[in-house]
Amino acid sequence: MKKSAPPPASKRTVKAATPAIQKSKPKNDRSCPIVGIGASAGGLEALVQFLKHVPKDSGMAFVIVQHLDPTQKGMMPELLQRATAMKVMQVKDRTKTQPNCVYVIPPNSDMSVLRGVLHLLVPVELRGLRLPIDFFFRSLAEDQRERSVGIILSGMGSDGTLGLRAIKEKAGVVLVQDPTTAKFDAMPRSVIEAGLADIVASAEELPDKLIAYRRHLPQLASSVMHLEEKVQSALEKIVILLRAHSGHDFTLYRRSTLYRRVERRMGIHQVGKISGYVRYLQENPQELGILFKELLIGVTNFFRDKTAWEQLAAKALPLLLKDRPAGTTLRAWVAGCSTGEEAYSLAMIFKETLKHLKSTDNISLQIYATDLDKDAIDKARIGFFPENIVADVSPSRLTRFFIKEDGGYRVNKEIRSMVVFAPQNLIMDPPFTKLDLLCCRNLLIYLTPELQKKLFPLFHYSLNPGGVLFLGSAESIGNFTHLFTALALKERIFQRNETAMQGSHLDFPAVYVPAHIDRRESSVPARTPVPSLQSLADQLLQQRYAPPAVLVNEHGDILYISGRIGKYLEPSAGKANWNVIAMAHDALRNELSSALQKVIRKKGTVTVRGIKIGPKADLRAVDIMVQAIEEPKELFGMVLIVFSDAVIPAEPHAEPAKGKAAASHNARERELQNELKHARDEVQASHEEMQTSQEELKSMNEELQSTNEELQSTNEELMTSKEEMQSLNEELQTVNAELQAKLDELSGTNNDMKNLLNSTDIATVFLDNDLHVRRFTSQAKTIIKFIATDVGRPITDLASDLLYPALVKDAQEVLRTLVFSERSITTENGRWFTVRIMPYRTVDNRIDGVVITFADITAAKKVEAGLRDQHRHMTKQATAQGLALDKALGKSKSLSMAATKRKSKP
Questions:
Q1: pLDDT at residue 692, as a whole number
Q2: Are 368 and 340 in contact (CB under 8 A)?
Q3: HEC profile for 808-862?
Q4: CA-CA distances (angstroms) from residue 227 to 18, 146, 222, 230, 809?
Q5: 485-501: b or e for each residue (b if 16 or more CB lie within 10 Å)?
Q6: Taking a C-beta distance cutoff of 8 angstroms, is the pair 467, 431 a contact?
Q7: pLDDT computed for residue 18 by the predictor
Q8: What pLDDT is stored for residue 664 in this prediction?
Q9: In the chain, N or C terminus with fewer CB closer than 10 Å?
C-alpha cells in the first residue's frame, strides 16, 4: 500500500466543483463525524503524538479503544488531557458524542455506537482472545457507513483488521500509523498486509491527512443520483481506463457504488473535480490498480450472518443429503469468494452436518470457489488467517478445522482439499454446471438490475433439480419466483423449481450457452427419429379417448398440456401468462382456484362436477379433477388437472298452469340453491382452515411459553455466571501476563542460542529419524553444499567435500545404540574436521533424529604434522649423533685396551 500521494497537477486549474461533487467543509448533518482509533501496546505514546497535532476545532469526535487491564482503574483520560486542548473523558453508558471531544473506553468493557450514542457492554468472552477494537469498528461501520473513519496506531496482534474490513465495505476510510514509526508494528502491519490501508503516515502526520480528506471529501447528493452529462462522461472514461488496465468491464456495475468509490479516492487524493481524477488516473497507473481493488470490495469473514449458516445446515444440507447414494460427491460453487472465508465456512458446515446426521455413506463435497481478484484467490489458496478470526470461529471449530501457527491459524488438509480456487469473471466466463449448491452472497447488490435479471436464469440452469441457491442478506430473487422456491426466505435460501424458464433465456454477454437451450441456433439439422408403432398407437388413443389435461406446479404455472384444452382454457389479453387460473374460462376460474388450493394444502384428489359454462344457446357442463402427484418421484409436488365434458341434467317441466313465469322462478330458485350450497362449502372450508390455524397457533403459543421459560432460566444462569466470568477474566489477564513474560523469555533464549551457535563457529546439521535435513547453520555451507531448499532432502543427496563414506552408517548406528560417534575426517581440499554425531533428544526425552557437528581442526592437524616432521628430523639427528658417539666410544675403548696391553708387558 502506497502512502498518500500528492495531488495531481491538473488540480491547480480546477477551482469550482460540479453540482454533483461539491467541495465543502465537514458538517454535522446527522451527527458529528466519529473517528475510531484503535491502539494496544505502545499506544499511549502514539496517541499523545496524534492528539498533539489535532486542532481543537476539528469538528470531529475521537473515540479511543485500547486493550486495558480490567483490574486497574483507567488513567488514560488524565494522561491524554495533557496532550490536547480538546475535552477528554471516559465513556459512560449512553454517552452522546459531541464534536471536538475525545472519548476513551473504560476498562473491562466492550463499546458500540448507535446513531452517534456510545453504548457499553460487558464482555462475554470466557476464554480466548478479546477483540474490543474489531467490535467497535464493526459497530462504527454499520452506524456511520460511508462517513466512518478508522485509525490503527501502535499495537501487538491483529485486533482491528476485521473491523476495518467492515469500514472499507461501507466505503469508509482507513488510516494507519507507519510501522517504521510504531513502537509495536504488529497491528499496523496486519492492516497493511490485508490491503485495507488508504493512508499510511506517522502518528504526527495522520491528523493533517485526516483533515485534508474530510475537507475534500465530496458530499453525496442522494441515494438516487441524477448525474449531469459531464459527470456521466467522466465515469464512462474511468470505466474505459479500468477495462484497458485490468481487462474487466465495469459497465454493468451499479452506478451508485462506482460513483461512491470514485468519490472516496478523490477525497483521499484531495481532487476537487471528477475530471481531475480522470487525469490523475491517466498519469498514475498504480491508482488504477488501487481503484480496481476498491471496486471489487473484497470484504468477507467466516460464517457471515450466522443465522443464515445455521439455517443452511438445518434445512438445505439435509435436503441435499437425503436419499443420496453412498460414495457420491456433491458439487458447490461459491461465486465471489474473495479470500476464501465463505468457501471454507461451507466446507466446515458440511462436515458438521455429516457428523450431526451420523452419515456413514462416504458422501463428499467438492467446492469450486471463484473470484475476479487474482490476488484474493492467491491468499485463499494459502488458507492462512490472522488470530482475530476467533471473533467469528468458535473454539471447537478452531480445534477441529484449523492448525495453530505463529501469527494465526491455517485450515487443515481435510478442509483445504475440499475447495478448488480459480479466478473467474461471473459476467463473461462460462458458469459451473450440474451443481447441488450455489452460493452467491453479497455480490448481486453491486450489479445493475438488468444484469441480475440475466444471472438468475443462469443460476437456475447451473443447478441440478432440487439444487439450493444461497444469497446474501440484502439480496432477493425478485420476480423469479417461478424459478426458485424459498426454503428460508429471511435467510435467502432457495430451492430450484422444475419449470421452464418462460420469458427468460440465457442471452448473456459472451457466456457459454449450451446447444440444448435453444435448438433453433443449431446449424446442423437433427435427424428426426422414426416413430415406432407403439408411440403412434399411444398418440392416437390419447387424441381420441384421453381427456384433456394440464400439468402445473404449486403456483398454477402450466408445465405440460395434453389434448385439446381450447374449450376450457384460453390465453388472456396482454402479456403472455401461462398460469392456469389466469387462462381458465370465467365460469371455471373460481371452482378451479378453490380446488387447486385444497389439493396443495391437503394433497389427495378433489373433483368438481357439473360446472356450467358457455351461453344459454351453447350451454355445456364440465367436470374437473385436480390431483396432487406423489409418484413418480420426478413429478413429486406437481398437480394434474383433468377436464371432461358432462351431461347437463334435464330441467323438470313446469305445470302448464303455472306457465313460463313459474318455470323461470324454479330455475332461479335452483340457481340460488346451487350458489347457497357453494357458499356453504366455502364457509365450511374456511372454518376448517380457521380451526387448523387455531390449533397451530395454540401449539406455537405453547412453544413460545416454553421458550420464554427457557430464556428466563438461561437469563438467571447468565446472571449467576457473571461473577464467574469476571473471575475468569482476571485469571485470563494473569495468565496472559505470564505468557507474555514467557514469550519474551523464549524470544531472548532463541536469540541467545542463535548467537551462541554463530559464535562457536562450529558447523551444525540437524537430521530427522529418516536422515533428512531439518536445519543447518551457515557454517555448514562451507562443508556440505547446502541451499535453502535442501531442508527436507536426504543427506545422501547432497554434495560434500568430506571424505567420509561411512557418515550415513555411523548416523544410523547412533540412532540404534544412542551412543555418540566421533571421528577425525579430512576433506578433498585438505581441511580436517572432528565429526561428532549425537542423538537429538526432545524436551520430553524422545529421540527425534541426530545432530552432527563439524569442528575445524585443520590448524591442529597442521601443528601435529609439523611436530611429527620435527620429531622425525630430531630422531634422525639423534640417531646420527648416537652412531658417531658409539663410534667414538669404540675407538676410545680400543685405544684404552691397547694402552693396557702395553702396560702389562714386562
A1: 72
A2: no
A3: HHHHHHHHHHCCCEEEEEEECCCCEEEEEEEEEECCCCCEEEEEEEEEECHHHHH
A4: 10, 19, 10, 8, 81
A5: bebbeebbbbbbbebeb
A6: no
A7: 34
A8: 66
A9: C
Burial class from Cβ neighbours inside 10 Å (0-12, 13-18, 19+) for residue 195 reads middle
* Residue 217 predicted with pLDDT over 70: no
Alpha carbons 508 and 462: distance in angstroms, whole number: 14
Q: In this model, does residue 382 exceed pLDDT 50?
A: yes
- pLDDT(405) > 50: yes
Residue with cell 403472455: 576
Of 387, 390, 384, nearest to 155 (Cα)?
387
Q: What was the pLDDT predicted at 536? A: 66
Q: Give the residue with greater pLDDT, 881 vs 512.
A: 881
DSSP track, 416-456: HTTEEEEE--TTTSPPP-SEEEEEE-SSGGGB-HHHHHHHH
DSSP 714: H
CB 640 within 8 A of CB 624: no
Confidence of residue 36 (pLDDT cuts 50, 70, 90): very high
Strands 493-496 and 402-405: what pairing? unpaired
Percent of the chain at pLDDT > 70 equals 82
* pLDDT tens, position by position, 670-690: 777 777 877 777 777 777 777
Helices (H) and strands (E) in the chain, counts: 23, 30
Tell me if 383 sits within 8 A of 344, measured CB to CB: yes
In the block, which residue shows the cell 450514542? 117
315: which DSSP letter? I
Q: Cell numbers of 710, please? A: 427457557
3-state secondary structure 355-389: HHHCCCCCCEEEEEEEECCHHHHHHHHHCEEEHHH
Q: For the full predicted model, state whether its pTM sits above 0.70.
A: no
DSSP character string of 379-415 = HHHHTEEEGGGGGTS-HHHHHHHEEEETTEEEE-HHH
**Cβ 154 vs Cβ 186: under 8 Å:** no
Contact 503, 493 (CB under 8 A): no
Identity of the amino acid at 886: D
The span from the CA of 568 to the CA of 588, in Å, is 8
Torsion sign across C-alpha atoms 267, 271, 272, 276: negative
**Consecutive H or E run containing 558:** strand 558-562
| C-alpha cell at position 329 | 460427491
